[in-house]
Design a protein that fits this description.
about 550 residues, alpha/beta, Alpha-D-Glucose-1,6-Bisphosphate, Chain A, domain 3, TATA-Binding Protein, 3 domains, 7-stranded mixed beta sheet, 5-stranded mixed beta sheet, 23 strands
C-alpha cells in the first residue's frame, strides 16, 4: 500500500471538489442501463456513487425513493418515515428529491427543522422511539455516503427494525429502482418541492433534544461530568456538529468543540493515505488534525460524516478500532448490571480475536457474523447482544436497563463511552488495552487489497472448504476453514482460515477490482506477513480449481 505524499497534510486547494460541478451533474447527468456500473446497487451500506460518474444522480434518488415508497406500502409500514442527511454536497439536493417523491406517495415524513443535518444513529433512535409507543410502524431513510470523499453521495434505508435493511429488502429496492430507471422513471410519483414541503404529511421536527436528553439512559453522563474530564471533539464537518453543544450544556461537560466548520469541500480535512479527502475517523492520516491536539485533552474523539463511526484519541494517539471495541465490550459486560447475564458480544468475523480471548476470561459468549451491521439488528432488538461492533469502527450497545438503544451504529455513544471509561476507572482506554495485551497477547492486524478480475471476485464468493487443501497456516495447524459465519450460519462471501495464533479472511470488494485480505497474528509482524502471503497463495490455488 503506497502512502501518498499528501497523507496527513492539510488538503491543498487543487484537490478540492467543485461543488457547482457536482450539483449540476446531479441534475443534468443520468445512469445508463447499458452501463451496469451506473445503475442502482445496494451494498452493505446502501447505494453510493458520484454524480460525476453518473452513479449518484437525481434519477437514482427518484427511482430508489419510489421503490421504497412502494415496498413500505406493500409491507404495511404506515407510520412516519424519519429522514436524515449528512453534510456531503450531494446530500442537499438528494434530500429535496426524496421529499418530493415521498410527499407525492402520501408518505408521512419527518425532517430536521430547516432541512438541518441528522446523523444515522439519531434516525435509528427516532424510529425505535416511535415504534415503542405507537401501533403504526415507522422507518427511515438517511442520505449519506458515510466517510466517502466529498464527490460522493449515498442513500440507505432503515426498515421498522431501525437498523440497516436486510439483503432481501435491499434486493427488492435495487430491482424495482432499476426497473423504474429502465422505464425512464415514468412511474415515479413526484410533487414540486414547494408543494411537497407544505403537504400535510410533511413535518419538520427537532431531532436534537429528544436524542440528547435520552443519552443519560445509555451512558453514565453523571460520571463524566463529576470527573471534570477535559474532552475534545472534532465533528470533522459531519452531521453531528450541532449536537455537541447541547450535550455539553445539558450534562455540564467540560467539552470543547475543536472544529465547528461545515464545508462541503471538506477543505479543513487532512488528506487520507491515498491522497484523497476522506472523513475516516479510524485513519491516523484523516485524523491528523485532532491528533495534533491530543495533549490538550484527557480524551478526544472524531466521527465520520453521518456519525455512525467513531475515532478515539488518548494521550497515546488514535486507538485502532479493534482495540477500542475490545475495551468497550470488556467494560460494558463487566459493569452494566441491568443487562442479562446471558447477553453476548456481537462481532464481525474480520474483527480482532482479542475480543474472543477477553470474552472467554469474563465468561461471555461471542457471536461471530459476516461483515455488515445488519447482522446485529435482531440481537440488539431482543437484548441477546449487549454490545455489537465491527472492525471498521462502528458499534452500538444496550441502554442501562438492557433494552434497545439503537439498532444501527452510533458514534456518539461510543465517543461518550470512552469518557465514561476514563471517568469510572481513572484509566484511559489505551492503557486498559495495553493491560489487555499483556494478558492475552499483542495482536498484529492489517487489511490489505489484492488485484482481482470480476470473474475472480465471483469465484471467491463461491469458495467452499472443500476447495481449500491446506493443513497449516504460517507454520501452525489449521483449526478451521469457513465460508459461513459460525454465529448465524450466513455466507461470508469469501473464506476464513484460522490457526491458534493467527487467521486470515478474504472477501471481494463490491466497488473495485480487488479482494480484501484481513489478517491477524498474535506472534509478530513477520508472522502476519507470512499469513498474508499464504492467504494470496491459498486463494489463487482455490480459484484455479473452480
Amino acid at each position: 500500500m503506497e502512502i501518498s505524499e499528501l497523507a496527513g497534510k492539510k488538503a491543498p486547494k487543487e484537490i478540492l471538489a467543485s461543488i457547482p460541478k457536482l450539483v449540476s451533474a446531479y441534475y443534468t447527468e443520468a445512469p445508463s442501463p447499458e452501463d451496469p456500473g451506473t445503475m442502482v446497487s445496494f451494498g452493505t451500506s446502501g447505494h453510493r456513487g458520484s454524480s460525476l460518474r453518473n452513479s449518484f444522480n437525481e434519477t437514482h434518488i427518484l427511482s430508489i425513493c419510489q421503490a421504497i415508497a412502494e415496498i413500505r406500502k406493500n409491507n404495511r409500514t404506515a407510520g412516519p418515515m424519519f429522514i436524515g442527511m449528512d453534510t456531503h454536497a450531494l446530500s442537499e439536493p438528494a434530500i429535496r428529491t426524496a421529499v418530493e417523491v415521498m410527499a407525492a406517495n402520501s408518505v408521512e415524513i419527518r425532517i430536521q427543522d430547516s432541512f438541518g443535518f441528522t446523523p444515522t444513529p439519531v434516525v435509528s433512535h427516532a424510529i425505535l422511539g416511535w415504534n415503542r409507543n405507537n401501533e403504526t410502524r415507522a422507518d427511515g431513510v438517511i442520505i449519506t455516503p458515510s466517510h466517502n470523499p466529498p464527490e460522493d453521495g449515498g442513500i440507505k434505508y432503515n426498515p421498522p427494525s431501525g437498523g440497516p435493511a436486510s439483503p432481501e429488502i435491499t434486493g427488492q429496492i435495487q430491482r424495482r429502482a432499476n426497473e423504474l430507471i429502465k422505464g425512464g422513471c415514468r412511474d415515479v410519483k413526484r410533487l414540486p418541492l414547494s408543494r411537497a414541503v407544505s403537504a400535510p404529511t410533511t413535518k419538520f421536527i427537532d431531532y436534537i433534544v429528544p436524542y440528547v436528553s435520552d443519552l443519560r439512559n445509555v451512558v453514565d453522563m453523571k460520571a463524566i461530568a463529576s470527573a471534570r474530564i477535559r474532552v475534545g471533539v472534532d465533528p470533522m464537518g459531519g452531521s453531528g456538529v450541532d449536537f455537541w453543544a447541547p450535550i455539553a450544556d445539558m450534562y455540564g461537560l467540560d467539552l470543547r468543540i475543536i472544529n465547528k466548520y461545515v464545508d462541503p469541500t471538506f477543505s479543513f480535512m487532512t488528506v487520507d493515505w491515498d491522497g484523497k479527502i476522506r472523513m475516516d475517523c479510524s485513519s491516523p492520516h484523516a485524523m491528523a488534525g485532532l491528533l495534533s491536539n491530543k495533549e490538550r485533552y484527557a480524551i478526544s474523539f472524531g466521527n465520520d460524516t453521518d456519525f455512525d463511526r467513531h475515532g478515539i484519541v488518548t494521550g497515546d494517539g488514535l486507538m485502532n478500532p479493534n482495540a477500542y471495541l475490545a475495551v468497550a465490550a470488556d467494560y460494558l459486560m463487566s459493569r452494566r448490571s441491568g443487562w442479562s447475564a446471558g447477553a453476548r458480544i456481537g462481532k464481525t468475523l474480520v474483527s480482532s480475536s482479542i475480543i474472543d480471548r477477553m470474552a472467554e476470561e469474563i465468561g461471555r459468549k461471542v457471536c461471530e457474523v459476516p461483515v455488515g451491521f445488519k447482522w446485529f439488528v435482531v440481537g440488539l432488538t431482543d437484548g441477546s447482544f449487549g454490545f455489537a461492533g465491527e472492525e471498521s469502527a462502528g458499534a452500538s450497545f444496550l441502554r442501562m436497563d438492557g433494552t434497545t438503544w439503537t439498532t444501527d451504529k452510533d458514534g456518539f455513544i461510543m465517543d461518550l463511552l470512552s469518557a465514561e471509561i476514563l471517568a469510572v476507572t481513572e484509566l484511559s482506554p489505551s492503557r486498559i488495552y495495553a493491560d489487555m495485551t499483556a494478558r492475552f497477547g499483542k495482536p498484529f492486524y492489517e487489511r490489505i487489497d489484492a488485484p482481482a478480475t470480476p470473474e475472480q471476485k465471483s469465484s471467491i464468493k463461491k469458495l467452499s472448504p472443500s476447495c481449500v487443501k491446506v493443513k497449516e497456516l504460517a507454520g501452525e495447524p489449521v483449526t478451521a476453514l469457513m465460508t459461513e459465519a459460525p454465529g448465524n450460519g450466513q455466507p461470508i462471501d469469501g473464506l476464513k482460515v484460522t490457526s491458534e495464533n493467527g487467521w486470515f479472511a478474504v472477501r471481494p470488494s463490491g466497488t473495485e477490482d480487488v479482494y480484501k485480505i484481513y489478517a491477524e497474528s498474535f506472534k509478530s509482524p513477520e508472522h502476519l506477513k507470512n499469513i498474508q502471503e499464504e492467504a494470496r497463495e491459498i486463494v489463487s490455488a482455490a480459484i484455479a480449481k473452480l
